[in-house]
């Protein structure tokens, strides 16, 4: 099984978490890169989107991920900031599509369940598991960076589960 | 007073209205271009955003607007489609910023009030006024195209009002 390099993006305008993880199921995962893209809140919204696009484009060109995993944004909570979050996630998807890289969305509870076993885990628990799974000395800071890594890990594991399921279905079909 | 060329964008993923109007207050306005960018709803979201970006970029390069006026998206209504609308508006802002073109947001009621005199006007009323103000033979179709033209008209008129206010304030200060 080929190793997968996944860029996780926790979308946001003030802080956009980016984390790259490489690996596959059943083997220890490797941290490739982690960081946060910030844009000043007093800057024009259009210019903030442009800065975010340039930063994400630079990361994609430099790191060449196989997949970009983006947190699925819901409109029901945090109405004040959700528009900016939706726009930031759109920029991340756009940059991936421009480079021909597939995009996958994962919900916050899917991510939490993947890395902690519980879809209701808190941020500290997610950060603790990311630290352990990637064998880091300390939890990545800020929380957005840890969340981006959790997204990437979630993608590697969920993708594998989906692949196993698809393989099982195909095998069952072939056996008939 | 220099004539202003405004690109109005009524953001959407399935249909994104684009309309370019040129003119200034007190003179008849001119229609430069109008249309709708469509992306197939069965296409991957990231690829829809990429198609929209390319279409808008092509329009901006070809028409060189002085300003891009985008409808301000609210998260409270139409929760199902609002995320796509927010992302489409983000793409429009991004494209403008990339070309160094200023972006201005106008709310739907500001647009309606500007072209019909009432912030509660319906779509037919807006389309009728756009048709009259631009001296067209028939209302632009679909409604998204008419809305985009209304946004551009709104921008030209609101901008002028804001400029007059600023000039009056400056004059009052100078007279003291």
TrEMBL record, chains A, B:
Binds 2 Mg(2+) ion per subunit. Mg(2+) 2 binds at residue 71. It comes from the Bacteria. PROSITE patterns: RUVC. The keyword Magnesium applies. It is found in: Cytoplasm. GO terms for cellular component: cytoplasm; Holliday junction resolvase complex. The active site is at 10, 71, 144. Its cofactor is Mg(2+). InterPro entries: RNaseH-like_sf (IPR012337), RNaseH_sf (IPR036397), X-over_junc_endoDNase_Mg_BS (IPR020563), X-over_junc_endoDNase_RuvC (IPR002176). Its EC number is 3.1.21.10. It is an enzyme of class 3 (hydrolase). Coiled coil: none annotated. Keywords: Cytoplasm, DNA damage, DNA recombination, DNA repair, DNA-binding, Endonuclease, Hydrolase, Magnesium, Metal-binding, Nuclease. Homodimer which binds Holliday junction (HJ) DNA. The HJ becomes 2-fold symmetrical on binding to RuvC with unstacked arms; it has a different conformation from HJ DNA in complex with RuvA. In the full resolvosome a probable DNA-RuvA(4)-RuvB(12)-RuvC(2) complex forms which resolves the HJ. Belongs to the RuvC family. This is Crossover junction endodeoxyribonuclease RuvC. It comes from Aeromicrobium phoceense. The gene is ruvC.
């Amino acid at each position: 099984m080929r190793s997968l390099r996944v860029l996780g993006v926790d979308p946001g305008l003030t802080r956009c978490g980016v984390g790259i993880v490489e690996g596959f199921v059943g083997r220890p995962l490797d941290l490739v890169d982690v960081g946060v893209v910030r844009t000043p809140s007093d800057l024009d919204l259009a210019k903030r989107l442009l800065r975010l696009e340039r930063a994400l484009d630079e990361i994609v060109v430099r790191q060449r991920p196989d997949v970009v995993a983006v947190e699925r944004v819901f409109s029901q909570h945090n109405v004040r900031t959700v528009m900016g979050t939706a726009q930031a996630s759109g920029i991340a998807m756009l940059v991936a599509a421009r480079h021909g890289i597939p995009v996958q969305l994962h919900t916050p509870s899917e991510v939490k369940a993947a890395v902690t076993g519980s879809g209701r885990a808190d941020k500290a628990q997610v950060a603790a598991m990311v630290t352990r799974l990637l064998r880091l000395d300390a939890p990545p800071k800020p929380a957005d960076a840890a969340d981006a890594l959790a997204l990437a890990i979630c993608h590697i594991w969920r993708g594998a589960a989906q692949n196993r399921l698809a393989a099982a279905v195909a095998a069952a079909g072939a056996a008939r």
